[in-house]
Amino acid sequence: MHEYSLVRALLREVKKLSATAGDVIVTQVRIQIGPLSGVEPELLLTAFANLAPKSSMPEAELFIEEVPLMAECSECGTECEIVKYRFLCTQCYATRMRVTSGDTMLLESIGVQPLSSEAQVS
Amino acid sequence: MTVHTIHASRDVLADAKLKAAGFREQRTQEGTVVVNLLSSPGSGKTSLLEATARYWNGRHKIATLVGDLATDRDAQRLAKWMPAVQLSTGGACHLELPLVERGFYALGSGPVSFLFIENVGNLVCPSSHDLGEHLRVAVLSTTEGDDKPAKYPKAFRTSQAMVVSKIDLLPHVPFSVDAATTDARAIQPEIAVLPTSTISNDGIATWCEFLETQRSALMNT
After folding, report:
1. Most buried by CB count within 10 Å: which residue of A73, B59, B173, B206?
2. Which residues in chain B are closer than 8 Å to A28, comparing Cβ atoms?
3. Three-class SS of residue A34?
């Protein structure tokens, strides 16, 4: 189970990204994963719930979008969905294909709130 | 309360992949091919490395970094044949580059032709982590069943070769090399399939020649 190490890497990226916005609190973390990302959503959520507070992001909530596995044919350039891990172009039936999405864990975006507005509410 | 969205669309492992690419490039400059061996526990990775060293008999300088959750037994076994450093993960299920780099510098063997990384026995987590290897090899033993490529697609999709180990047991186990090959090639059409036995030594020469061919190709580009 390597979800903890992936969440640590995710939180490092989130920190770098939120730092570009100044004094903010992170409330949302949106990621995309796919069939070849090698991660289990439930385990990711558990790891995130455990590690986010330790990274000074107790307010952060993780949103996981699951995307299909897509690949581009090296012969004809067609991009198609790869079903059941069968790498076969739907147009020309070539098998040499480059994965275009669904094999990584992508930090899509984060939602942040200014620290000041948080102070006004509380 | 307004929530501002900051877009990134960034691979969480992008930094790690960049560092791995740097490690790979440094080894290329030194003439070293890094080979990352992935498999379930007990597939015979250590035996394959012993057989490789035995076959080459000093023809190539080689070294191994061997990952396990505990003990240095594999490193002790391999030390008879080559410089070997044990990477104890302390419970972690896979190797990551920082541990590999520490092990590499601890080897102190100088440039080698092949640096083998024997990953922690696990077909799941190690497949997501680039260790700066030039070649990733999935080892599948005949006792595990020929359905493993279909069950663990990422390990085989990201590998350039599949070593089918323990083929001396084929008469005794329900394993079809053809079925495993068909499934592996549906996932990774270009995967090289190398049946081996470290008991009978069948296929060991072909495996070693495969490594030499890959090294020649990598070093000439």
Report:
1. A73
2. 3, 5
3. coil
β-bridge mates for residue A32, sequence order: A65, A106
- Is the separation of the CB atoms in B87 and B95 below 8 Å? yes
User: Helix B14-29 to helix B97-107 angle, to the nearest 10 degrees?
Assistant: 20
Question: Encoding tokens for residue B126?
Answer: 């190690």
Burial A7-21 (b: 16+ CB within 10 A, else e): bebbbebbeebbeee
Among the partner residues A24, A85, A114, nearest to B186 by beta-carbon distance: A85
Low-confidence ranges of chain B (pLDDT < 70): none
B87, amino acid identity: L
| Chain A positions in Cβ-Cβ contact with residue B1 (cut-off 8 Å) | 113, 117-118, 121
In angstroms, rounded to a whole number, what is the distance separating the alpha carbons of residues A72 and A90?
A: 10
This prediction's pTM:
0.93
Count CA atoms within 13 Å of residue A90 on its CB side. 9
Closest partner residue to A1 (CB to CB) among B3, B15, B93 is B93
pLDDT of residue A120 exceeding 70: no
H/E run at residue B63:
strand B62-68
